[in-house]
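MODEL INPUT / OUTPUT PAIR
PAIR INDEX: 1
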Amino acid sequence: MDEAPKIGITGLPSVGKTATLVRIVEKLEEDDFRVGGMITKSIYDDKTGRKVGFSVLDWKSRAESTFAHVDFETKYKAETDDGVFFVDVEALDKVGVPAIRNALAAEDVDIVIIDEVGKMEMHSDAFCKAVTDALDHPKPVILTLHKKSRNPLLQDIRRRDDVRILEVTAVNKNLLPYKVEKILKDKLDTTTFYY
């Protein structure tokens, strides 16, 4: 049996990794592929337009929770190009981790998405374990990766032979969804995966 495609999407901050992933998912769903997992969404201040936090969304159930915010009072923090955010690990573990685990287990999910393996999410041991389990699972996985982090999990992912890493840039971000969809469809249309 061929190995299921594992695709990592990376790029500079604010280049549009999540937007690219959502476009890939929408294209796959148009072609009747069933997608599960999690994405992160930016939260902006209504008055200033400044990015103030992030929520995690279960793609399948639509459950959502804010897991990082400038105003949270937690011991976990992440310094990013957008500022310092405090991380509520419990919120990530309550929505993001089950979204990944349920997508791996569900018979009605063909492709698992994980957005993003980055500085904020690394505070959750359960999240890191879910990412590793997803990459070791027979289902195809698409994940977005923080470009510059030296976190051991990210370094392990970059070193894996079975993960194909593609970089989103301002130039290619409109074409990349088509490329990823083609990689997945070429594999999925010719391969039977046994979960």
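PAIR INDEX: 2
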Amino acid sequence: MCRDFSPTPVDPAVLDRLLEAARRAPSAGSSQGWAFLVLERPEDLRRFWEAAADEEWRSRPNLPGLLRAPVAVVPYCSPQVYLDRYSEPDKAWRGLASADRWAVPYWTVDVAFATMLLLLAAADEGLGALFFGRDAEAYERLSSTFGVPPDWQPIGTVLLGWPAGEGGPRGSALRGLRPVDEVVHRGGWRPAGGAPR
């Protein structure tokens, strides 16, 4: 995750490739209930930051590198797209026409898949990328500012651009990755370093 961006613009053809990669994500019932608000004009980025972050947040010492990112992508999902899809004849038998019937909200899972493909495609292009979230009020302001219909929910924001400076890990990234034996449970769930239960 990059936290220090160069203001150098991202070529539109590169951005189109990233979005095409994201569009190919798997989707429950091929519902494809995700969309991306893409902001790349300086005026749109200014409006994004005004809506997504108050003056105090924008003045934090680590923020100048983020504020220079030339592209912001806000991934959205719509539960209603999935409820409508699972009301169609080939899916209605599943009984998933209301959100409370879903054990897992696949609208969120699917947009997360699409967002991960966007991040991976950015890395393949040599771009820096950062996924981050804001509070519900900030996203309400953002959705209102850019005319997003109320049935679409944001899951976060992806900043894209060319890395500036060192751009190495800092902050939470310094925690590192959990050891594989704490993450992988073969043959049954087990405590770290223990035998399967």
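PAIR 2 NOTE: The helical segments are 12-23, 42-52, 55-58, 64-67, 79-85, 106-124, 136-145, 180-183.
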